[in-house]
Amino acid sequence: MKKILIFFMFLFLLVACGSEKEETQKSKNIEYTFTPTDETSVKLEGKVPLDFVNGEIPPTDYLKEIATQIMKDNPKYENFFIYFTFPFVEYHQKASSDVSLYYLASKSKEDTDFDITPMYSNLEFTKITFNENIIGHLGINKLSTIAPITVGTPINDIIAKLGTPTQMDEGEHKDNCMYYIVNDNRQMIGILYLYVKDEKVSDISFYSPIIQYNKSQKNDIKSYIMGSKKYESLKIKELTDIYN
Known about the structure:
This protein is of the alpha+beta class.
C-alpha cells in the first residue's frame, strides 16, 4: 500500500512540473505586428507598434526577442532595420521626426546580434503633451514632484526617486544625466540636466530648446528644484500651458 501511495505522489509531481513548464513557455510567447516599410533583395525595414506589458514599458530584451523572431521568419534578408514605436504622445505640434519612435533594432550580415538604439531622445525639440500613462517612465517627470534635488545628493538616490534617466551623457561626462520635465498638464517644459561627480550631484541645470525662458525664470525654476523656492510661487505661464 505504501509503494502505491509513493507511486501516485511521484506521478502527481510529474504532472505538476509539466503544467508549470507549459505555463512558462506560454508566458514567453510575444504577440506583435510587424509592418514592412522598405524591402530590397538584402534589406528588410519595418515597424512594430508596442504598448505597455504588465504595466511596464517593454525593455530592450523584449525588443531584441521580437527582432530576432522577425529575422528568423525572414531568412532571405541580410540587413534588418526594425523600428519600434510607442504611444508616448497625446498631442503635438508639427514635428520634424516621428514622435512615436521608441527604439531601432538593427543588424547587418556581419553583426552577431542586434544593436538596440534609443530613438526617443529628441522629443525635447517638439511641443508635445505626453499620454498620462507615460509619466514616471523613461525619465519623464512632473516639475511639481521632483524637488528638492540638492548638490551633494547621491545620484542613486535621484534615480530611485525619478527613475532611470531619459538619457545619459557620453565620454568623459558619462555620469551626467538628463530628465524630461513636464507641467501638470503633461506638456514638455524643459530638461533637467544633472552634473555628477564621484557619484553625487555636483550641479543642476534646467533649460528648454523650444521655450525661451528668461534668465530670471530659469533661476526661479532652479531655485524651486533645489528646494529654496515653493512651486506655488513660480509665476511662469508655461508651467500651465506651453501652447498659448
